[in-house]
TrEMBL record:
The lineage of its organism: Bacteria, Bacillati, Bacillota, Bacilli, Bacillales. Residues 4-88 form the BMC domain. Keywords: Bacterial microcompartment. It comes from the Bacteria. This is BMC domain-containing protein. GO terms for cellular component: bacterial microcompartment. Transmembrane segments: none annotated. InterPro entries: BMC_dom, BMC_shell, CcmK-like_sf, CcmK/CsoS1_BMC. SUPFAM superfamilies: CcmK-like. Belongs to the bacterial microcompartments protein family. PANTHER family: BACTERIAL MICROCOMPARTMENT SHELL PROTEIN PDUJ (PTHR33941:SF11), PROPANEDIOL UTILIZATION PROTEIN PDUA (PTHR33941).
Length: 94
């Protein structure tokens, strides 16, 4: 399985937890990191196969936009090994 990476950024911790839960329940993905930035922005980073990432990001984006808390989302399909290593290194730091 070729891993891909997905990122959803929201305003607010509570909505980001709801989004992470919905994405994890909807698709076969792994949560790499959920990071609060600047007291308002929360970034959720996930990994999984291409279709799972697309499905999870679509669900997360839809929930965030419905709550008017969406900032950005992106998918990186089949990232270079160097980028994957960088994301995993960031994800394991406290």
């Amino acid at each position: 399985m070729t891993k891909s990476i997905g990122i959803v950024e929201t305003r607010g911790l509570a909505i980001s937890i709801q989004i992470a839960d919905a994405m994890l329940k909807a698709a076969e993905i792994r949560l790499l990191r959920q990071e609060t930035i600047d007291l308002a922005l929360v970034t959720i980073t996930i990994e999984g196969d291409v279709e799972a990432i697309r499905e999870a990001i679509a669900i997360g984006t839809r929930i965030a936009k419905a709550a008017n808390q969406w900032v950005a989302s992106t998918t990186i399909l089949r990232p270079d090994d160097t980028l994957t290593a960088l994301v995993e290194e960031i994800a394991i730091k406290p």
